[in-house]
């Protein structure tokens, strides 16, 4: 297996290809956008999530984006992170502040960056925690705008934000049955998660039509890369969607 670590110019978009696993030279790589959690960074998320892909037979390129907002260290520590980036403010008095800027920036990346960096398109998107909530926002936008940015989505310890406008947009996904722009989704979370309770993650999953909900693991707020059920379920899902991606 070959691993490549390539840094893209992050002056404006912060888009970087940090990981590629290659099993078959002629196999078309699945190009996946990764969104980290609150208080994290692209680099730290790479270290956490890439073991999931080491077990796959499919070739994948993981493209990471740093959140658009800096997180003060004290606030980040309240959520179990060191100082890093975020997609919006998690301060209870400013719940959701900054999400519109992040959404606009991510849509710019989806519309402009693939061609700029010799990527025809992204196949899928994966988010952890706040990043998973943003995945919900982007899939909702995809349905509203009738776009085909992604053919699959994965949410790890996701949730529906408390912000009223954000919540409405995600909740409206459940009324988009039959909309071809709502893609297959994979959801996984831990029963021991005390930051994002598993009921909240399950509620997000229910908004996606035909969502595949992995059996919850016993761990906490984490990207679980050791639980056999999680690994097997993830392998099964990627194998299924890879056929969808290569057939279109």
Order of helices and strands: EEEHEEHEHEHEHEHEH
CATH class: Alpha Beta
Total number of helices: 7
Task: Detail the poorly predicted runs.
Answer: 1-14
Please compute the radius of gyration using only Cα atoms. Answer: 17 Å
Helix content: 25-40%
From the coordinates shown, what is the CATH architecture? 3-Layer(aba) Sandwich
Within the largest sheet, what's the order of strands?
1-2-4-3-7-8-9-10
**Secondary structure tally: strands:** 10
First-to-last CA distance: 27 Å
Essential attributes:
alpha/beta, Rossmann fold, eight-stranded mixed beta sheet, two-stranded antiparallel ribbon, 7 helices, 36% helix
SSE layout:
Elements: E1 2-3, E2 15-22, E3 30-35, H1 42-54, E4 60-65, E5 69-70, H2 73-78, E6 85-86, H3 99-116, E7 124-128, H4 130-145, E8 152-156, H5 164-171, E9 185-188, H6 198-206, E10 212-213, H7 228-246
Parallel strand pairs: 3-4, 3-7, 7-8, 8-9, 9-10
Antiparallel strand pairs: 1-2, 2-4, 5-6
Explain this structure to me?
By secondary structure, this protein is of the alpha/beta class. It has a single domain, classed as Alpha/Beta hydrolase fold, catalytic domain (Rossmann fold, 3-Layer(aba) Sandwich), CATH 3.40.50.1820. Helices cover 36% and strands 17% of the residues. It has seven helices and ten strands. It has helices spanning 42-54, 73-78, 99-116, 130-145, 164-171, 198-206, 228-246; strands spanning 2-3, 15-22, 30-35, 60-65, 69-70, 85-86, 124-128, 152-156, 185-188, 212-213. The longest helix has 19 residues, at 228-246. The protein starts with a strand and ends with a helix.
